[in-house]
Specification:
Length: 549
Amino acid sequence: MTIQGSQLLAKALKRQGVDTMFFLMGGPMLSAESSCIAEGIRAIDVRHEQAAAMMAHGYARVLNRPGLCMTASGPGTLNLGTGLATSLVDCTPVVAIGGSSALKEWGSGAFQEFDQVAAMRPLTKWSERIYEARRIPELVDKAFKIAASGKPGPVYLDVPGDIAHHQVEEGAIVWPEYDRGTLLGRPAADPTLVERAITLLSGAKRPVLLWGSGAIWANAADALRVFVDKTGIPFYTTPQARGVIPEDHASCYPTARSRAFKEADVILIVGTRVNYVISHTRAPRFNEQAKFVRIDIDPAEVATSPRLDIGLVGDARRVVEQLNEANEGRIRPELFDEWRRSLADEHQRRHQAQEIKLSTDQNPIHPLRLCKEIRDFMDREAILVVDGQEILNYGRQSIPGYLPGHRLNSGTFGTMGVGLPYALGAQAARADRQVICLHGDGSFGINAMELDTAVRHRLPVITVISLNGGWSADVKRDRPGRDLGYTRYDKMAEALGCYAEYVEEPSGIGPALQRAGDAVGKGVPALVNVKTDPNAMASVAKFSFYDVT
């Protein structure tokens, strides 16, 4: 008995637990895509390949497992590049599979001949070509393992046309051991260094806990909750790690973030890179005399820390569990009562002032008012995606998160256009969740035609656009009287089959969102196009949530 390479690829993907793929059809992958559908894999075809990679990214972040994208050869594969580079910088596991010209024709100037494997190497953790059809399951398994292991990231697997169509003897197939991943332990940190970290934290007067997406990939939420509850240490997160512990927890003081960083004497950093997002831990944003403890699964991350007193190399969940085991009441909430009261007072003062700004009735509508209306409308368990420039900064300041993996944005690569694709990937992953995409008009335009994907595949996302003419940048703002480009995206959305509204008055936002929610309840994607103040500039220096001054 023989089996075609394309069918073997589909079966290998199914054995990995793949239930959804994001793709754009084309040779030589047509038979592979058809085989995936025959295996029961949901196939969501997109309008541009970069959106397929971005949807796989959104899917991965919500479900905490690799997302899959697939595309044709040549430009089809290269178009995945922006999405995969974003996933690499964002440490998100995505498996990308691209068709390519036949091996037997390599070097002859074949149709769309291009070294895609080489092109993908700088954009991924691992890039490889399949040379033998019988090894397809082996290499698919390796791709998924590499994407999800250690520091997560995207991988690329190249499928030449003749390999896809080759007939393989079933007895020659190399099938991997699919349960091998369950045998892998979570690497723990050096116990001696764990003890030193507990000693340092127990002697602190003003400690702070800061974590990033590594805490999500490690499933560290429960361990962190125990640590925070047992120690009373105030916590903060990077933007996409929000919700690991709900932000209305008693030890979270979002609007006092700036003061906490400046005054903290010990900072415990869990599962995030020390990059521009947290000002590289430099003064004056951080206390010049502060001590730093880092937990990261990547030894190179810890070793290259700009400031480091104790480095704990290991899985975030396992190392936090080690801290909990070693603590045994040595770090207690009452030790930091005064510190928490100070941050709570600062938070309350700033929060009250912020609520006044959020409630403004000015017209043109201030973006903060739009953020408030979304905050008050969205479910507690909603997945929120924010993408743009001004609206991204305002959204960070004003909309809290309550569940891990439920907040997505442009990430550390600052990629514009990810919003709608991320939201569609998230909706495909969690049909039971309300998914809201808050978009700037410029970033929306990059992948706007994916509204067609939303309609065709009944992915009922609510897209809200802050329409400030910013897609034309600041140039026109310097020329009074010029049209800023208030594009009626609602008309476009209606033409594609969405429910859509256009809003110019602050009082109209809430009712429009409610009607959009009603449409989504019937399985219809919705878009609310809100005209906002083009002169509103978010005074945000760094990409963090709430107070960042």
